[in-house]
UniProtKB/TrEMBL annotation:
Residue stretches making up the Organic solvent tolerance-like N-terminal domain: 49-182
Biased composition annotated in UniProt, kind: Basic and acidic residues: 551-613
Native organism: Salegentibacter flavus
Signal sequence extent: 1-20
Region called Disordered, residue ranges: 535-623
Protein name: OstA-like protein
Acidic residues bias: start-end ranges: 535-546, 614-623
InterPro entries: LptD, OstA-like_N
Lineage summary: Bacteria, Pseudomonadati, Bacteroidota, Flavobacteriia, Flavobacteriales
Amino acid sequence: MKNFFIYFFIAFLSAGTLHAQEGRKIDYTSDRTLKNEERYPGAIILGKVENQVYFIHEGIEIWCDQAIHYDQDNFFKAYGNVRMQQGDTVKMQSDYAEYNGNTQFAFASGKVKMERPQTTLETDSLFFDRKKQQAYYRSGGKVTDTASVLTSNIGRYFLEEDKYSFVSEVVLTNPEYVINSEQLDFYSDSGHAYLYGPTTIESETSTVYCERGFYDTRGDTGYFVKNSRIDYNNRRVEGDSLFFNRNTNFASATNNIKVTDTINKSLVTGHYAEVFRDRDSVFITKRAVAASVQDNDSLFIHGDTIMITGKADHRVIRGYYDVRLFKSDMSGKSDSIYTDQATGLTKLINISEGPVTSITARRSPILWSGESQMTGDTIHLQSNVETEKLDSLRVFNNAFLIQKDSIKGYNQVKGQDLVGLFEDNELFQVDINKNTETLYYSRNSEQELIGINKTLSSSIRILMNERQIDDIYYYQNVDGTLTPEEDFPINARQLTGFNWRGEERLLSKEDLFKGKPAPKLTPIRGIPLPEEAEEFFEEREEDDLLLNENSRLRPEDLQNKKDTTATDQDSLRLPERFQDKETDSATTRRDSIPAPDYKKKEEELLEELKEQNQQEEEGGEDN
């Protein structure tokens, strides 16, 4: 009996003293210690009285209420109010935890919370590899950042890089927007997020979509590539790459861009665009083309630069420098153009100031319709906004109408101003005022040439039929003669200012760029695919298990399971380094490893401690 007391006294002292063991041995302190070889062979039971059980091993500290420690295996299981701390940078809480000192591998479950200086991770169960300095969950988790909250089914944290990699149903929630992504890599130090796979960023004012992108969650700026677009209330911006600044509501697009106006049925394309949402304006250059629908026909306007301003109910399109327009029944050119979609007014304008250059070469605005050509200092086209059909046109100053005769020569009309009227988009009447002149090839009903009519008058009315001059009426101060063709001098068959530009006429949409070199596209700065990392659960020898044979985890819990849903690697459905569990949400949730009923376990351990104390007291009385 004396030997028993000596043994018990030594054991009690050793249990209450920090074990200063060499190498990789786990050191511990505990208020209570007992053995139960029947239930826990090779283990000791550690319990809290006033102070929590305390473990320390190579820089990591663990506190808990109760623990089962396998000293020879360098492994323990902790129950109740578990806390882990690695230096000043990692703190973790849970209901239950296991730790293998040989492999430095830990597992925690039950209300797991891991805190870092910039983020807090919460999940049901968490694996922590201290050698790799990586944590991993696959049962759903939430990370709270200084600016956002991120949730996903699967997540992996790289402590040295301070990076989270989220996979499967990733959601980042910010007071201003919500990001939904297939995969998101997040750097907590900077707040930078890299987006992979189909991704949306939704807010009250816009929705961004991309399949590869970058977003600064603290600076609120983003860069998106691969099928990227931005949707505003009534406008969509698409391009090979997009830049977005939420603070200034500014976006820019580069290469193969499209800006769609869903209300006004218009589309603008080009290779560089800037969008200012607060100003309701779009700036487009590099082979810019604005297309709109008019009476089931498309009108295309091309210029070096196109600007669209105004709210949806009052859009204004401006084109600058060598502007060209094409419609199936009409085409034209001018130095600049102005179109008010609310009023239906289009102005073809000549540049009146500034030096003449190869880009801004001054030439009178011109319109072609069939074999007719119309020029003047300024041309206005008026459309009916309800029917979308042309209603009228006006030519201000130096109006000149030329029509190629069906057989020879040119019919010509000139004057100060011109007014034209349309019916079903066909010009049927033209009135020319002030100092008018005509040179007209007169024919009979059999289209035989009668002679050439050259006339001066105050005003003229021309009636058109199928885009050809049908009749001409002269008003006031008429002075003209009909001269046989053979008697009319060849050098007098053109009125002063005559300039036939039929070779410039646009015959198709492709002629919008005729004579212009293809633009040099800006190289797109890509976003690389995420780096491949080794699988989280590495293959191990049988005698080098991640945890321990006494662990509550099964061997299959530590296997890398392959995802069977990913079929297209380029779609980034799921990189292999995250294929530890299938990504189906229902399956993933079943993979959660809940904490044991630690309260029940704590009660059992406490009961064993009480029984041990009672036996010791009874044994002391007997002796």
